[in-house]
Design goal:
This protein is α/β, with parallel strands linked by helices. The chain has helices at residues 26-35, 47-51, 55-60, 79-91, 107-110, 122-136, 156-165, 188-197, 212-222, 239-247, 258-276, 279-293, 301-309, 313-321, and strands spanning 4-6, 9-11, 15-17, 39-46, 71-75, 97-102, 141-146, 170-174, 203-206, 226-229. An eight-stranded parallel β-barrel has the order 3-4-5-6-7-8-9-10, surrounded by six helices. A two-stranded antiparallel ribbon has the order 1-2.
Length: 372
């Protein structure tokens, strides 16, 4: 592996933490960065909320002291709003890198023409990319996308060429369509085809990276310049330790005993409490991480239930202390994490598929709240 170049930013190892709504807040990025190097991207931020200076959005866009490079992902459907948001980030020094979301498959986004639905409208995509690059000035702009809406409406090769023509610094491809959601198997061959189609800029591969060995196989099979890790690191910030080790040429993966996992869980919850400024909210937000951290470990139904209903750090940590900290890393902890069910259809604006060349910003397309 070699270092990833995103504009003036050099990323080593060539690994990117995928933006995940409700997951990749500053506390979790801190835990991942402490394990190994890479580029750690914020939760998805909506451009309308940013330009309107929504208080929640400005909390979400906050970075920890020493967090560098500061990377933010933007979601937007209106080129004018996206351009204003990019200019605002550059002029107010809010981040060092802007990533654009064209990969989100959730209905509340695609039914407005956003996320993974948007690249089907080639001219709208071009206008958004042009506005973002112009607004960002010297800051590098990248984009993350999927193969397309479904197998009959693939867009990734056209989108990749448009990205090159509009000055985008790198593209990331999740090897699934929107209708697949997170089901089935990621198509790594599509990543290889995109790499061949856009040799001018780095291509990052995303999808089904559950281990450092998976990342190595993806790079070898596709020729991609780096990898994007999403669900594979849920409850496993030390996956970035594995990736750093592999990139440096050694091969002994991190397999923490339950004691190290518990210590990380306790710290994660504490960081969330500090971030929210509320013990109740921080502990409540941490609950969704518990099953991922404890995957494969013997914890017991009663203990898991108590952890999932804890309302204070003291109660949470007391239950964590009751676990057998000497338990070794279980084989059952390996493999897929997170939701994996496909969807029956993609929710789209009326007539969205009629004309891929139509330049239209759907009415009410811009979400007024951040998060995906």
């Amino acid at each position: 592996m070699k270092a990833l170049k995103i504009g003036p930013i050099e990323v080593w190892p060539p690994v990117v933490l995928a933006p995940m709504a409700g997951i990749t807040s500053a506390p979790y990025r801190t835990l991942c960065r402490e394990q190994g190097g890479g580029l750690f991207v914020s939760e998805m931020i909506t451009t309308r909320a940013l330009v309107e200076r929504n208080a929640k959005t400005f909390t979400m866009i906050g970075f920890e002291p020493g967090e560098s490079p500061r990377s933010v992902q933007l979601y937007g459907v209106d080129p004018q709003t996206v351009g204003r948001a990019a200019r605002m980030i550059a002029e107010e020094d809010l981040a060092d890198h802007i990533d654009l979301n064209f990969g989100c498959p959730v209905p509340k986004v695609t039914r407005r023409g956003g996320g993974s639905a948007l690249p089907y409208k080639r001219n709208l995509l071009r206008a958004i990319l042009r506005a973002a690059v112009e607004g960002a000035g010297a800051l590098p702009v990248t984009m993350k996308m999927r193969k397309g809406i479904d197998d009959d409406h693939l867009t990734y090769l056209d989108a990749g060429r448009i990205a090159v023509e509009e000055g985008v610094s790198a593209v990331a491809l999740h090897g699934r369509t929107a209708v697949q959601h997170y089901g089935g198997t990621a198509d790594w061959e599509a990543i290889a085809r995109l790499k061949d189609a856009v040799p001018e800029i780095p291509v990052l591969g995303n999808g089904d990276i559950w281990s450092a060995a998976d990342a190595q196989r993806m790079v070898a099979r596709t020729g991609c310049d780096g990898v994007v890790v999403g669900r594979g690191c849920l409850g496993r910030p030390w996956l970035f330790r594995d990736l750093a080790i592999l990139a440096d040429g050694t091969a002994e993966p991190a397999r923490p005993a339950l004691g190290e996992v518990v210590a990380t869980m306790s710290r994660h919850a504490g960081l969330l409490v500090e971030s929210f400024g509320s013990e109740w909210h921080g502990v409540a937000d941490f609950r969704k991480h518990i099953g991922w951290y404890l995957k494969g470990f013997a914890a017991g139904t009663e203990t898991r239930r108590a952890l999932a209903t804890a309302t204070t750090l003291a109660a949470l940590r007391a239950r964590l202390d009751d676990l057998d900290h000497d338990q070794p890393w279980p084989a059952a902890a390996e493999g897929p994490r997170g939701k994996s069910n496909p969807r029956e259809r993609v929710h789209l604006p009326d007539g969205w598929l009629d004309d891929p060349g139509e330049y239209v910003v759907p009415q009410g397309a811009e979400l007024d709240n951040s998060g995906g």
